[in-house]
Amino acid sequence: MIGVGLDAVFSPRSIAVVGASRHPGKIGYEILRNLILNEYQGVLYPVNPNARSIHGLRAYANVRDIPDAIDLAIITVPADLAVRAAEECGGQGARGLVVITAGFREVGGIGLEREARLVDVCRRYDLTMIGPNCMGVINTHPDVRMDATFAPTPPLRGGISLVTQSGALGIAILEHAKTLGVGFAKFCSLGNKAQVSLNDLLQMWRGDPDTKIILAYIENFGNPKNFVQIARATTKDKPVIAVKSGRSEAGSRAAASHTGSLGGSDLAAEAVFAQTGVLRAASIEELFDFAMAFSLQPLPRGNRVAIVSDAGGPAIMCVDELVAHGMRLADLAPATQAFMGTWAPPEASLRNPIDLTPQGSLEDYRRALDAVLSDDGVDAAIAIYVPPVRVDEVDIARAVWQTAKDHSKPVLCNFLGRSENSPGFVELVSHGVPSYLFPESAARSLAAMYRYAEYRKRDEGELRTFPVNRTQAQTILDRAVGEGRSRLRDEEADALLNAYGIRTTKTRIVRRIEDLSRAAKEIGYPVVLKAFGPEIVHKSELQAVRLGIRTEKELVDAASAMERQLRDRRLTVEGFLVQEFVQGGMEVILGMARDKVYGPFLVFGLGGIYVEYLKDVSFGLPPLTDRDAMRMIESIRTYPILRGVRGEPARDVTALQDAILRLGALVSDFDSIQEMDLNPVLVLEEGRGYCAVDARIILAQPSS
Prior knowledge:
This protein is an alpha/beta fold.
């Protein structure tokens, strides 16, 4: 029903402004003024009990006095009156509601109760609501022309639709966009997202022919699992570029106080973006850097870039940034370099990046750009120009866009030091070539275009199911929770993993030193000895593990020394684990943490004792497809080692993929699992599988 209601919100035939005002500076005044100035194509009904007319339009004392049906009601009255106003709008047949008013969930206390009543009104009258605590909505389509916001800057028409959770940022974004010449199809300030969320807008805008690119400022996800599903489908059709605030713990707390919603951890957010193909911008400025490139230029076919410059320094900076973001310099064909050598200045460097030096003429610059774009080994070009006094920058800008339009490859430009106010910038952008103040911005934007092009081609894979023993797992967890324990014992952890088909080493639990020998013989020497107890968590640091024990005497001596040393440190030793000694495996870590918003998310990376120092890890949010799991493995920096380097054998990556999927199923099935570390997991040679050697499983404490 929300999808139907959103039509009433974005394409209403009539609008009632409840709280319309005759006083400039009041929100009710500004919204009605914007609707009139932008020539809204429907019928307007100002509602104000103390005015006969506003802006020359007849005013109504009450919504019930409006003689005709209304599609959309915009509520600007104080919070204590807003719920009753919404009820009156519903009774009058309104289908859409935009509640500008603040004073709801974000203030806590009475605001929470007020928002609950507002949502109940929407449910009873089948109203679709944006807000509360928002700045409104925009639709620039010529048949609608609706600016139902209090923003002072009217938007340009274009192919971008923007959703923001911050009204103040929304105002700044609209102003900045106009200076860049960037236009919008639709705009929505979500506020508290009491009903309509980012997910709803993604679904609507995915099918909207006017929306070519979706931009988002996000403080928190309403339902992350729904977002993954919806965003995955949306990004296959059109780019979604987002700024997600709350990277730091302090920022996350501030975001929660802003709209009354938790934001979750930034690591989990990164996992969401990686799985869905949503491009994350680091700032509002970068959001528009990306948007300008996507809206003006075609996607690159590959990552081979040519740079044409009249100065070496900016070109080198551009190269560094390109390489840092997965792009590479194109190898120019010998014929291309030979051709440029026939006319380029003798001082010029004709290897990519091309530096024509300040001696290069306007015609040299044009011919060089045309030459690299004509080269089959070039997928995209960045034109860098430091405008000298002797050449009109508009002439250079014209040469760039005229050359670019003769080719089907993306061209981005850096007019060093020239902002949106410069004639060169205006000439470029108005003719379809994005221009940037610095070379790094152009490089990052082109790299984002390439990442998105690659995402659209990638196989999303399938969700797999496995035969598991859920009853056994449930029994283990229920017993531990029932006993008030926050951590599974080692033997319980092994049994839990085995119930879901996650392979562990052969293990025997021994309570007394004199029983160690029998356990070791059952497993077969060499063995690993580990002490366990309630305070023994990081065994390596406590010297509570001994590898490669080959004789009974060595085993007993090691256990005695270990027990004595741990008790000297006042640590309780409940017994020992005797495990098979798996040799020749590469150490990786599999882990999981449960986020308060996103739920469980998985961690994979290089394992062993160095994991906390190298921090070479990747993240994934269940449910994972088989390709998601493989991408987690492939995305760590040390992945080539798993494939075999310098004579080392390739490791069983397929088995590792299976382990990640099974772990995802386990932690999705049981909310009582709060954290898990399988470290190390030994990945054996290809075809031989893996073994989880050590498991630490922390349980959530029941809320009192």
